[in-house]
Amino acid sequence: MIENQKIRPAQVIGPLGEPLTLDSLPPANTTRWVVRRKAEVVAAVNGGLLTVDEVCERYSLTLEEFASWQRSIDRSGMPGLRVTRIQHYRDLYERQQRF
Question: What is the span of the domain harbouring residue 38?
C-alpha cells in the first residue's frame, strides 16, 4: 500500500450546479478572474478535486488571495467575489457580526 495516496473525485459540483473536472477548470494561464472562474476554483478545492497548494501553483495565486476568495464565498456567496462591490459586502458582513 502506498502511503499518502489520496483518492480524488473525478468531478465535483460547480458553483452553478454543473459538473467540474480538471479539464473544465479555468486554464492555468488565466489572468482575468471573473466571479464564475473564482467560484469554480474554490468549488474544486472544497470538493477535493485540487488542493490549495496545487491551485496556488497552477494559477500563480498567493495563499492570501485564494483564502480571500473562500472567505468571500462563505460570507456572501458568489456576489461577494465581485471586485467592484467588495467594500459593500465587507461592510455588510461587519454589520451582521455586530448584531
Answer: 34-98
